[in-house]
Each structure stands twice: as structure tokens, then as C-alpha cells.
Amino acid sequence: MTEKVKLKWNGKDIEAVKGSNLLQAALDNGQEVAHYCYHAGLSIAGVCRMCMVEQDGVPRPFPACNATCGEGMVVRNDTPKIKAAVENTLQFHLLNHPLDCPVCDQAGECGLQDYYMKHGQYDSQMIDKKVHKEKVQDIGKNVMLDAERCILCSRCTRFTEEVTKTFELGILNRGDHAEITVNEELKNDYAQNLVDICPVGALTSKDFRFKQRVWFLEEVYTTCIGCETGCSVKVSQNKNGAYRVKPVFDETVNGHWMCDDGRQIYKHVSSPTRLQVASENMNGLFVPADELNIKEAVKGKKAKFILSTSLTNQEYERFFHEVGSKAEVALYTLPKLGADFDGILKRGDKNANLRGAEHAFKKAGKDSTPAALDKLLNSIGSSDVVYVVVPEILYNEDHFNTLLTKIEKASMRIALTPGETLSSMKVFNYLLPVPSFLEKEGDIVNFSGDIRKLNAGLSYGETTKDISYYGNWVNV
Amino acid sequence: MEKDTANYKDFSLLSYHHIPGVHNIEVFERAGGYEMMKKCFGMEPDFIKEEVKASGLRGRGGAGFPTGVKWGFFSKDRSAQKYLLCNADESEPGTFKDRYLVEKNPHILIEGMIISAWALGTQKGYIYIRGEFYQQAMILEKALKEAYAKGYLGKNILGKGFDFDLYVHRGAGAYICGEETGMISSLEGKKGQPKLKPPFPAIKGYRGLPTMVNNVESLAAVPWIMRFGAAEYKKWGTEKSAGTKLFSISGDVNKPGVIEVPLGTSLKEIIEVHCGGMRNGNKLKAVVPGGSSAPVFNHDESYVVKMDYEDVAAKGSMLGSGAIIILDETRNIGDLMKWTLEFYHHESCGQCTPCREGTGWLESVFKRRDSGKASKSDIDLLDKTAASMRGQTICALADAAAMPAQGMIKSFRSELEAYIMTPTHTGKR
Amino acid sequence: MILKADLYKQHGFLKGLYLGLKITMMNLLSNLFKHDRMTLNYPEEKYFYSDRFKGKHILTVKEDGTLRCTSCMLCSTYCPAQCIHIVAADDSDKEVEKAPVSFEIEMLRCVFCGFCEEACPVDAIRLSGEYEMSGHAEQEWVADHHELAFRKSLNGGRGIVSTVDDKDRMKLRL
Amino acid sequence: MSSHSNTHVSHSQGAPFKFTAENLAKYEELLTRYDDVESALLPVLHLVQEQNRWLPIEAIEYVSELMKIPEISIKEVISFYDMFYDIPVARNMVHVCTNITCSMFGGREIYQGLLKHFDTDYLTPTRDGRISLQKMECLGACEMAPCMRINNDYVGPVDLVSAIHKLEELP
Fold first, then answer.
1. CA nearest neighbour of B125 among B74, B158, B181, B163
2. Per-residue pLDDT tens digits for A122-171
3. Into how many domains does chain B fold?
4. Homologous superfamily of D1-87 in CATH?
5. Distances (CA, A) of B36 to A110, A253, A352, B227
6. What is the pLDDT confidence band of residue C40, given thresholds at 50, 70 and 90?
7. Contact between A102 and C122 using a beta-carbon 8 Å cutoff
8. Binary contact (C98, A98; C-beta < 8 A)
9. Same domain for A329 and A468?
10. Is domain D92-168 annotated with CATH 1.10.1660.10?
11. Global pTM?
12. CB of A224 closer than 8 Å to CB of A230
């Protein structure tokens, strides 16, 4: 397959693919190399001058990001010369950088802070007037720009040129007056990635802005349920709630990026209006109810289930095993939204685990098509109990509401929801909380048939009682 | 007009300059112009390349890299799409030789480019001339039109089955576009920011295709070399610095201007013989020997240095573009430093951090006297900062800013100390 | 250090006894004969603590009366008792950018260690000399920023200095 | 002393921009010189300035539409080069060299003197709209130091009196 070469990095033997990027090879082998402008998902700019290395037999130091791995290379970045160079270059980076750390959201995960601890010149000789640029600019799509904090690594401009090809950002002027500038405003659906790739606090997310300091957060690595792509993501959270979603590099699915819609999937999880306990409809107002009463009310009745497409394979399997084999079951699929595929990551099919659901239905000998759903809806009688599993992410509420109007015939209407109580849910007699995607372990199957893992993080609502638990109530 | 061989052999580049109206193709051809081009089409391209290599011609733009060797790196595939670029973005402070050459005799450059294009097998060429040289660009446009009319440019030149199109491309006022990859970026319609090397332009240049970039003076020397032979060219100059060179001389001399002398001519001779001595008979104080990027020579060094690549380098400076700025005893080195630092601050392209921030900081440290914050140790800080900028960037602009600063600190430290400690009218001190 | 058990053989035991009880004896004697070191008749008489006493917190304000705090959360990060809770938001002033909408200290959890004071990069929180913090059991014991910055005892910054000039901070921005 | 123009906001001239028929022909001719459209950007911007003196947002939009180059890329280029103006300039452009040799012979004093005499600022048109002054780095005419560039023509050596005299003669 690919040819491997051996090279020496700071005296340590490392192995890399021949002709691959030297800096990436070093990083992959766990070596520490300071860098700002290099990003594996973007072209090489070579402007931050932090990843300088010395190679035996090459007279001048050169940036590792612009070099390729060759057999027998002997490279060092721990020589006094390189250390001094990195120290000096970092000093230049910090020269006109404002002392904003206390108010900067990037603090704690900032490239400048990290490298300053290692390569900083602790005595500042800068007593001159700094170059001031415009702060706190809202450049659209939930992105805030602080031009002063920018170190002009050009990652963001390369992102809009190479990944989204929308050309909204540019670097105007030259010299130390050079400044990131937006043409009108950001328009692409991947703008939040700019916040991720910005190594400093120049681009910050308006959504996350000032909500938490990053050192209070811990991350749970899971999969985005925003559409059928199933990008690898991490959700930053602490006991007070979930705060943001960021992409995790995954070669097979999403590479380095994720779309802006996917960034919103955490919102219902720690929302203050999320349904916490079983509730009963009292003239349009939901009040906490005793589970036992509900159980009594549904016991032994003929049940009809409408499942959502955002459950895990394991949940489907358990449901069909314990409950579904005897009951009538149909699948509510979310309507298409936008183009089938936008060419980068986003897909119009918003059903996170449609493949998994279809598979489970087939295995249980049930029909998962919309026609079956219509059939079930038409057959609802006044003595039936209808369980509706509310989809986790509802892009089109109206479409879901239409479904709800069709179940009114049933005497007992129960919603199983992992999220907030919507106004349209007044149609239900009871609301029962189920775990959200962030509170359960399991697999989902994405558009290409790949199994993607959901991992549980901290919990903000129901964690154990899933659809099978409530479904079992009808079986005595 | 009779050909005066002796006169031609005294000069290579300025050999036609005494002829009135030589910018006109008719006059130029009567004097023997384009003859060599016609002959060259009968020669093997490799022979021309070898001859240029043998002549020891070195790039006249500033770096002094042997032109023949550079040509050797170029793609040998004659059918592949390639470009020849002439660097006429003469922006190094103190330099005006290319302007002079183009103004007086644009055809010698065009002839040189056609021969080079034949040797290198390029199908298209551009003369990148700086935006300020509007009239010079017009002169070139007119000359090109004449050459096209004669069939020396265009498709199937002189029936040899060789195509070469040549155009003038005007810059728009950015020093950095004189750097070859910066020029290529600029030609591509982008900001003139230098590109990472490798790959070098000879492999991947303009539009990702092999591109050869040569200075005006280098290309204009080619016809002469082909006419009289490499051996004849080598008779001038020193062993490693062959041939003649144009020097742009300005400052405190009686006759500033462009002169052509063999490399290795002493600076003393240049000042006293070619430039008519110092203005008002003042004593010489310092000389910038190769454009503002070159470290200055003090009085003593100036009188012993020979103007060739090696000797100037041995004395701690560089020949660069051959721009000699002469300062007499009435001048203050502090002013020179201030102007130089301001220039590089203004011209840094803003790509690499050490240069973008460093050039600005050098200027503000040097100007601390304006805010009353200066101290003598600032000179050490300047020296240290300049040193830390060197060799850290994509192109040589950071070095070009750091070298003269370090040079002036080395040679004129006490004067600079006195300068930065002198309060200005805006200072509080 | 290793103590030699037979050291008394060289020096005798009286010297050790004297040294060990010296401070105690001196305090005993001075308390016996000097009356100003005795128990105070609180609250009629009040004890004077040094300026370094760590009492009730103050949030300092700028000249224009707004809080200095930029809600960087360093104090709440540093706080060993985890008793500081800040909610931040955008400030309309772009120079300030970030300011707290709520700043609360759970007074019963606070151990008055002063780490918050140390951690603050903008001198926004100080521990004052106020030590009278008694109250009723049913009250919430959470001091919000109105209490911390503008309580009556501060007397608008004249009672206890709580106004800090902004110039020194702006100096950093050059 | 920055001579960087503030290109943060592109200025509007309040009227649409369009090449004249003659310039459109020139534009077509320019395109034939290059192997791709992007390369013609600098000459095209020069052409726009020949027609319109400066580059308002309308012209940027027009060129962007014409050449299919993103607006931001054009803005980047305009801000990078000293000779492209995104603020209104007067009908006569005067460049004063302030680099080493010219400064030695008083180039800076001439520039300051001219600013004072015409009561104007960097690039700001004089009140009668005749002249815009721009200080420039080395113009490449050091043998005639201190030199100036008046609408594409070099003049030098000049002093303040002769410089003012020359500028007063401008239409």
C-alpha cells in the first residue's frame, strides 16, 4: 500500500508515510511541535513560523509544515537555535496581541497561552503603542471577530476559500495593519468551524460566548444526530449543562468539520424546559403525575406505537423484543430539509438512524414505510392507546403537528420525549421523559451504513426509563 | 551609421545608449540590434544556455545567483507550457538602473528576452514593471508593438516554428512584488505575497507552471554575451563576478546617475572618477553599497572596497541591486536608520509573523524618543530583535530590514545612541 | 533534624524548659499586669484588626460606578470552597466587552482564604476588614453583587475604599 | 504615520459603475494577454482607475461580476497595493518620494510643505478637487532626488517652491 519511511525526530525513531507532511508525522507520533497556521484539513500557508526545524545537512532551518517525510531524515526542533527562534517568533506573535485573556473565551484552549508557558519570554520589552484594530465585530452566522487578537495565521481565509468556497473572509492591508475582514457577512453553513480552527480568540462563537470558561467543561465524544451523516462530535458539558458541540476528526465520515445545524443538537438536553418527570395534562397544563396512575390507565389496552428515527439500534431491538412484537408499530420519518447533499457534509435527510430503524422493523417483520404509518393512523380507534416517540431534533415542527392532529381519535395519547415540552403537545394526555442522545450508550447507522457510537455523558434528565419501559405498561 | 566595434566592446548593456533614438526599432536595427537574435535561432537552445552559464553572468536583481545555473534548473521539456518573467519591479531604494535601461533602449531587453525564450523554450513572457513606471511601460508597449510588426514576436517567429508572446504587466506599488514569488502572486492577480519554497518557480511558478524569473539587466546582457562570446564577457570583472554591472548612484556626489563598469571596480574610483567626486568637496561618511537592504559601509570601508559580489560580502555587506547611496559628513545615520526602518515597516507584506510584527516594532523602538521613552539599551534591543528576524521568514524582506539595522548599529553605535536619546519636539524628555 | 535524646546531659534540662515556656510566660506576665490585652466589652468596644484582615468581600467599582469585574471566573476557578458563582454577559462598552450580570458568594461556604483576591487580574475583588457578619438562620447567606459592591457600610466607596482608578488597568492596553 | 488607507468599509460613490465601450474593448484585449482571467485583475483595476480615478464599491462589484472573482479577493488586492485607491481621490495624483535619497534632499519637508500649502492630508483631495497628495516609498528616480511623480510623469529635482509652482499649474 503506502510506502513507509523511517526518520529521526529529536533522536527518536518515528515512522511515517513517504512524502507525507513532516509536521503531521511528528504530531501523529506524539511529538510536540508548536504551530498555528498549519491545519491538516487546509492547504499549507507556512506563515506562523513556529514549526521551524533543523535537518542534518540542510544549512537553514525550515518550517516542518512545508516539508515532506523522506527515508533517513534526521530532524530536530530541540536545538538551541530552534528554541531561540521559536521563542522570538512567539514574542512577535504576542507583540500586538491585546491582554484580553480575562475576557477572552479562548482562554484555556488558546494556542498563544499554551506556547507561552513553554516558549514565552517572560520579561516584556514592549512599552510601545500597540496596533489597534476593531474589536467585537459580529460577522454573521453566530461568529464574533476580534481583529486585534488575530495572529493572521490565515486558517479562516483558507477555510472559506478551500472548504466552503464561499470567499467571505480576506486579509486586507499589509504589514502589521493587515486585518481579517469579512465581505458583508458570513453566509456559509459551516461558519462555526472558523471558531474551532482559530488558534486564538479572534473568532469566537456567539452561541457559546461568555457562557462558561472552558476549563470548567469536560467533553463527551459521541455522534451528531442532526442528520443522517452522523459526524463524530464532542459535547462540552458540566453539571450545569451542555454548552457546545465541536467536531472530532474522523477520516471516514466528517474529516475535520461539521455543519452549523449540528452545533445546535445539544440545546434541548440541558434546557430548563426539558421534561423531567412524568406529567399529566390538566386542562392544557402539564403537572407532575404518579407513574403508577398512568400505568393503571393504560394497562391491558390496545397499544399503537409511532417511533422516531433518532433511537439507537439497541433501543429498537429491545423494543421489538419486549413490546413491539405484539403491538402495532409504525415509524415517523422527518421530512427532507434542503438539498439532498450540500457537497461537504450536510444532508437533507434528517433521520439520524433511519437505516437502523428500517433494519429493526424488517427483522421484526414490521413495515417502516410512511404508507404503514398512514395505515396505522387511519386505524386508530377510540379505545386505543397511542404512544408517540417525539423525535429528538425537530427541524419542521409543522410537519410533526400534522401527525399529532391525526391521533386525536385515540382515547389515550402518550408522548415519550427526550426534550422540551412543545405547545403542540397539548394533544397528549401524558408526557413521559426518555433519555436524550447524550444520556445513552448505543449505536446508530449513518447514511453509508456505518455504525456510529453514541456515548453517555453527564445527565440532565431521564437516564434509564426508555421506550420499552413505558411500552411494557400495556402488557400486564 | 557605422558600427563602432570598440565602443560596443566598452560596454555590454549601455552599448547602444549613445545612439540617438535607439528606442526606435529602426535605429536599433541599423546599429546591429536583433541581429544576434536572428543568429541565435540558428543555434541549439542548449548551446545558448551553456554559453550563458559559461559567461558567469549572475542575477542582477540582488541575490547574485548565477543565471546559467538557474536556467539549468528549468524544465527541459520544450513542448510544456512555461513562462519567462522579466523582473522590472525595481523598488529597492536607491535603484533606478532598470528604469534607465528601459527608458533608453527597450529593444535590448526585448531581444534578450527573445533569445532567452528560445533557449528556455517558453511560449509566453511578461515584463512585470512597477506601477510607478507608467511612461516606461508605455515605451515598452510601443517597442513590443514594433517588434510584433517586424515578426520578432508572436506565432512562428521568422518562420522558425517558434512562438513567443511578450506582454507588459504593470504592478501597482508594492516593494514585495520585486521578490520573484511575490511577483508571480501579483501576476496571478492576487496580493503580492511571496510563496513558500520549495517548490521553486522554475518547477512550479506562475499558475503552477514552470516559470523563469530574471532581472532586466540579466536578460539585457544576454545578446551581448551571445554576440561576443562567454570568454569575452568573462574578461571583465573578477573570476567569480564576471562582466559589467550597472550601478545606480545617488546621494552626495556631484554626478548621480547610472554607470556601467566592470565588476570589481573600486568604490573609490566610482565616486571620484565616474561620479565627479563628493558634493561640495565634503568628506564621505557612509555608503549604502547595494540598496537599502545592504548594511552600510563607514568611511574607511568605503575607500577599500571593490564593487564585486565577493569583496562586498567579505566586508560585511552585499552588492544587491547595485544601488549606491553616498552620504557625506553632514548626514546623520539616525535619519538613515529611521527612513530605512519606516520603509520596511510600510512594505512588509504581512504574511510571516517575524517580519510583520518585527518591522513595525523596530520602527517603534527606534522612535521611542518621540514619546520620551527611549533609553540607551534600546540599541541592544534593536540589535537583538533584528537578529531574531533573520532567516525566519518565507522571503528575504525580514532579513533586508534586519541587516541594515544591524549594520548601522555595528558601525555607528554611538551616533545612534546619541540620536535616540535626543528628544524630539513631540517628546516629553 | 535529628534530636539527640541525651542532649540534656550537655546543657541541663532547665535551659530547655525555659526556652519552651518563654513565650507562654511572657504572655502570662504581661496579661497579669497590663489591662489593655484583656477581653473587650464587645460590641461597645471594638477590636481593631490590621488592614490585612480578610473579612467580608468587596467588589470594587470604577470611577463611573460600574463594577470592575470582567467576569473572567478566575476567582471562582481558584476558590477552594467553590462558593463564587458568576454569570457573564456582553457589555455594551466594547472596551470592557464582558461584565457580570450576577456575581454571588455563598458566605457560609467561604473560608476567607483570600485566593480570590490573589487570582483577580483586575483588582475587582478585595477582602475588607469587616468582620461583623452575623445574621439570622433563615436568611439565604448569599451575597449578590449589590451587596458586595454597594452595601451601606461601604458608604459609596468613602467608608471603605472600593473605587479603583481605571487608568492603571488601561495602561496595560497601551 | 501610517499611509495604509482604512479599507475596513468600502466606500460608495453613490452611482453605478460600468466600463465605457472603449474600455470594455480594452478589457477584452487585456484578457487575450493572459492564460486565465484572474491574472488580468491588476491591469483591469488600472483601467477602472483610468476611467473612474478610484475604486468605489460599485466598481468592485462590477469587476467581480465581470471577471467572476470574489469581491473579497479584489478588496484584498486593492488594499495591498499603494496605487489602488478605495477612497475618492482628486483628478491629479501627486506622489512625493520620501525614501532615503529623496529624504536626504528634503523630500519629507516638501511633502509636509505641500500638505500645509494645500491644507490637505494623505490622499485627501484638496478643496478644489484638483490634487491628491500621496507620500510614496522609493519611486526609483534617486538621481533626480528629491523627486515627485505628477500624473505618471517624473519631475525632479524639486524644492518646495518649484513643487508648489508645478502643482498650481495643474488643471
1. B163
2. 888 888 888 999 999 999 999 999 999 999 999 999 999 999 999 999 99
3. 3
4. NADH-quinone oxidoreductase subunit E (1.10.10.1590)
5. 63, 63, 74, 6
6. confident
7. yes
8. no
9. yes
10. no
11. 0.91
12. yes
Residues A190 and A294 in one domain: no
Collapsed DSSP state (helix, strand, coil) of residue B315:
coil
Q: Please name the residues in contact with B352: beta carbons below 8 A apart, sequence gap of 6 or more.
A: A46, A47, A48, A49, B392, B393, B394, B398
Q: CA-CA distance, D149 to B131, in Å (whole number)?
A: 12
**According to the model, what pLDDT value does residue C28 have?**
85
User: For A150, which residue in chain B has the nearest alpha carbon?
Assistant: B353
Cell numbers 532567516 correspond to what residue? B391
Q: Are residues C20 and C87 in the same domain?
A: no
Query: What is the CATH number for A11?
Result: 3.10.20.740
Interface contact A175-D4, CB threshold 8 A: yes
Contacts of B421 (CB under 8 A, 6+ apart): B369, B374, B375, B376
> Cα(B113)–Cα(B105) distance, rounded to whole angstroms?
13
* A239 in any annotated domain: no
The yes-or-no verdict on residue C172 having pLDDT over 60 is no
- Concatenating the DSSP letter of every residue in A154-174 gives -HHHHIIIIIS----EEEESS
B262-303 confidence digits (pLDDT tens): 999 999 999 999 999 999 999 999 999 999 999 999 999 999
Q: Smallest Cα–Cα separation from A312: which of A214, A225, A191?
A: A225
Sign of CA dihedral A197, A202, A208, A214: positive
Residue of chain D minimizing CA distance to A180? D8
Residues 360-419 on B with a CB inside 8 Å of D are none
Q: Distance (Å) from the C-alpha of residue C88 to the closest C-alpha of chain A?
A: 6
Residue B191 contacts residue B349 (beta carbons within 8 Å): yes
Question: What domain range includes position B273?
Answer: 244-328
For residues A69 and A131, membership in a common domain is answered with no
Separation between Cα atoms, residue C7 and residue A401, nearest integer Å: 92
> With an 8 Å Cβ cutoff, is D1 touching chain A?
no
